[in-house]
Amino acid sequence: MTTTPRIFCIGRNYAAHIEELGHVDDGECLVFMKPASCITPVGSPIRLPHNRGEVHFEAEMTVRLGRDAEGGLDPGDALAHIDAIGLGLDLTLRDTQNALRARGAPWELCKAFDGAAPLGPWQPFVGQELQALQFTCTVNGEGRQHAHTAQMLFPVTRLLHILAQTWALRAGDIVYTGTPAGVGALQPGDTITLSGASLGEASWTCR
To answer: How is the chain split among helix, strand and coil, in percent rounded to 5?
Structure first.
């Protein structure tokens, strides 16, 4: 597997999240990327950027590729390229994102800062039905997000097909598959926990 994975992220993949942020579902798949320097493993603290406005958590199911996909990828073949699944956080500088969106500017400044992709431990993919999984996010023990992957606007196999139309996907590449409703701001001292059957559990403390 590649030692420097690419992190592909999918925005607006749950209708309720689109609604909570006041957006309109345009039927398009929104894709952005984060560098490997965004990964914050379990056991390391989330270091919140200071003086840059609110830092929002977005809990997501993650998928890791175990095989290269050259020359495109048919949705019917996509599952054979997955070797692990898990949970992660897409951290977002929300005030910065709003300003960037107003200018029609790219999102790197709000999505791709160091540590912006806390990533839980990988669980083997052994044929689980990826559109029949549930996961939760709590902050300081309080439930904040609950997702059922059946609610995804673009299922995982479709996402991989879309990505493979632009990139030659590589073993080790990671896909964040979108967040449900319930996102919110993190504060220093908060403990955020993700959990889901088949997806594992992960927890971080914010500094």
So the answer is: 20, 35, 45
Average pLDDT of the chain is 95
In the block, which residue shows the tokens 């749950």? 14
Residues paired with 120 in a beta bridge: none
Q: Is 140 exposed, middle or buried (0-12, 13-18, 19+ CB in 10 A)?
A: exposed
Cβ-contact 76, 92 below 8 angstroms: no
Instruction: Note whether 57 and 93 are within 8 A (CB).
Output: no
Question: Cα separation of 200 and 43, whole Å?
Answer: 15
pLDDT digits (tens, 9 = 90+) for 91-133: 999 999 999 999 999 999 999 999 999 999 999 999 999 999 9
Per-residue pLDDT tens for 32-67? 999 999 999 999 999 999 999 999 999 999 999 999
Q: How far apart, in whole angstroms, are the C-alpha atoms of residue 34 and residue 195?
A: 23
pLDDT at 1 > cutoff 60: no
Backbone dihedral region for residue 108 (phi beyond 0: left; psi -120 to 50: alpha; all else: beta): alpha
**Per-domain residue ranges of the chain:** 17-43+80-87+94-119+160-177
Look at the block and give the residue holding tokens 């790219």: 106
